[in-house]
Task: inverse folding
């Protein structure tokens, strides 16, 4: 497959996959997701690769989440629960790509990591970020559900405030609550992350694979997959429900564009920030 939305590089046991749509804040289009799945399968099958790093191009965003302007993602084109289920199940399947990869996957986060991109990052094995990284379950603020509800497993009860408010937090707060493993200076993020990945890649491949498999099985034994499946069903019900807030957001987005819709949405919260 020829990649147009990602960059794939492999060197000295580490493969790096870069979301490469910087003009769109590396938004996760359906085309990007398809290319990413192919790249992960390629790295997983390569015996010379032991660790994967996923990052975003441009320095402004790891990713802003699923592409709102994607023709396959427009709410007005999905009028039944079945159609919503098919679309959102695809989102959950995309995030499972890194969870199911037999090798460790590191999310290297520089800039914004929002909505579906944050869901994706939480399915990676580790998260390292720059000191200007920002995180938010921003979909809550336009009445959308969470297709991959992994946050309770990452943060426990701390997830409630982030999900209920849609608040944005900075890198230090993300580190404090356990959302990320480490924070590095922006200009040192790539080098420091690669240093850890290279160190990790010196561990025997079979050791890495069996340890990841055992850790994942621990989560599955506790009900991880069943919980995520219920989260998907809840997301389908919410996204197929036309709340007044979503109706107004969609109306403005269609008439005036995404920027104006976001401006309207943010105005609802500004007095209480």
Result:
């Amino acid at each position: 497959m020829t990649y147009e939305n990602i960059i794939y590089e492999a060197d000295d046991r580490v493969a790096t996959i870069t979301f490469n749509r910087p003009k769109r804040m590396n938004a996760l289009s359906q085309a990007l997701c398809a290319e990413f799945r192919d790249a992960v399968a390629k790295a997983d099958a390569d015996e010379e690769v032991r660790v994967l790093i996923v990052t975003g191009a441009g320095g402004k965003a790891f990713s802003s989440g699923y592409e709102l302007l994607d023709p396959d993602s427009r709410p007005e084109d999905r009028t039944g629960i079945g159609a919503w289920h098919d679309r959102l199940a695809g989102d959950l399947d995309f995030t499972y790509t890194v969870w199911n990869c037999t090798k460790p996957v590191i999310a290297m986060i520089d800039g914004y990591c929002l909505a579906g991109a944050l869901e994706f990052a939480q399915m990676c094995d580790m998260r390292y970020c720059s000191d200007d990284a920002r995180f938010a379950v921003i979909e809550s603020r336009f009445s959308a559900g969470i297709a991959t509800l992994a946050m309770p497993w990452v943060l426990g009860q701390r997830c409630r405030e982030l999900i209920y408010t849609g608040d944005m937090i900075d890198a230090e707060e993300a580190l404090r609550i356990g959302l990320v493993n480490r924070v590095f200076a922006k200009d040192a993020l790539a080098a420091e992350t690669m240093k850890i990945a290279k160190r990790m890649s010196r561990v025997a491949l079979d050791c890495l694979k069996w340890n990841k498999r055992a850790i994942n099985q621990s989560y599955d034994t506790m009900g991880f997959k069943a919980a995520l499946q219920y989260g998907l069903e809840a997301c389908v019900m919410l996204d197929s429900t036309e709340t007044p807030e979503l109706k107004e957001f969609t109306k403005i987005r269609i008439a005036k564009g995404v920027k104006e819709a976001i401006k309207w949405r943010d105005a609802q919260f500004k007095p209480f920030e």
Q: What stands out?
A: The chain has one domain: 6-241. The chain has a mean pLDDT of 94. The beta strands are 6-11, 14-19, 51-56, 61-63, 105-109, 112-114, 126-130, 134-136, 168-170, 182-184. The radius of gyration is 18 Å.
